[in-house]
Amino acid sequence: MVASATLPMTRRSFFARAALAATVPSIASACLAAEPSFDPASVSADSPDLPAATLLNSGEAPAYLLVFHTGQEVMRGLLAFAKKYDLVAGHVTGIGALSGAVIGYFDSEKNIYLRNQQSEQAELLSLTGNLALYDNGPFFHVHVALGLRDGAARGGHLFEATVRPTVELVLTSSPRPVRRKIDRETGLPLLDP
Predict the structure, then answer these.
(1) Are 141 and 134 in contact (CB under 8 A)?
(2) Measured at the alpha carbon of residue 145, what is the angle toward residues 188 and 180, in degrees to the nearest 5?
């Protein structure tokens, strides 16, 4: 696996990180590294990564079956779905298969995420995560376990995942908003119940 290089940055995220770096320099790089490889504001509710969906049960905590197809990107699709349905909290689980992924490991000594590119076909053995609001928008924190051709497994924080041939998720939402805020020690957007 090869660690990935730099990430694209919007003007808004640049100025937010610059302000953070000025006040707490030791955590600025961790905050940048926790961001997805895409600009969440650029993901719209009609994204081509939006999964096919069906409502499994309604009520106070609706649950949805989300099905992704070859070529769709999971994290962008989850974000598009949350935006489309104005979701503010929840949890997600699932399985499937991927043609590639970027997974991370948080190095607590360096206070940064190490990103690793997984560029071969892999079974998505397990995906689990949660949804909360961060910076007034939906934010998914997701971890995965991937099974490789030789039976080896890799896992970590999920930044990106390209589907091949399918990923099947269940997303259970909650009407009560849950929020994240930047933790001063790590610079990460942690849950703030």
Answers:
(1) no
(2) 20
Over pLDDT 70: what percentage of the chain?
Answer: 81
Confidence of residue 42 (pLDDT cuts 50, 70, 90): confident
Backbone torsion region of residue 131, taken as left when φ is above 0, otherwise alpha when ψ lies between -120 and 50, otherwise beta:
beta
Fold of the 2-191 domain: 60s Ribosomal Protein L30; Chain: A; (3.30.1330)
What the block records as the tokens of 7 is 């990430």
Phi, psi (5° rounding) for residue 170? Answer: -120, 120
Q: How far apart are CA 139 and CA 108, in angstroms?
A: 22
Whether the pTM exceeds 0.85: the reply is: no
The type of residue at 161 is: A
